[in-house]
């Protein structure tokens, strides 16, 4: 199975940022703008996953692009 690259949409003070590993890909004033930017970068880096967090840092939802391993085989 191929490893997926993970991108995260996380709160950043009064705004939101898209990050990949320890680097920040972009910053945005709204969560919707950050999600749109995160989807674009994740779709361009398939196989990948976009993990969207709430303002408290907990995971809200995830989007997987290409080769979703669930349900697992077997």
Automatic annotation (TrEMBL):
Region annotated Disordered, chain positions: 1-74
InterPro entries referenced in this protein's UniProt entry, alphabetically: DUF2188
One Pfam assignment: DUF2188
Top-rank taxon: Bacteria
Compositional bias segments (type: Basic and acidic residues): 17-34
Name of the protein described by the UniProt record: DUF2188 domain-containing protein
UniProt lineage: Bacteria, Bacillati, Actinomycetota, Actinomycetes, Micromonosporales
């Amino acid at each position: 199975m191929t490893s997926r690259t993970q991108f995260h949409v996380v709160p950043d003070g009064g705004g939101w940022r898209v990050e990949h590993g320890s680097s920040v890909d972009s910053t945005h004033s709204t969560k919707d703008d950050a999600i749109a930017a995160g989807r674009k970068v994740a779709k361009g880096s398939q196989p990948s996953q976009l993990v969207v967090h709430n303002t408290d840092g907990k995971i809200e939802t995830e989007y997987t692009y290409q080769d979703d391993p669930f349900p697992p085989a077997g």
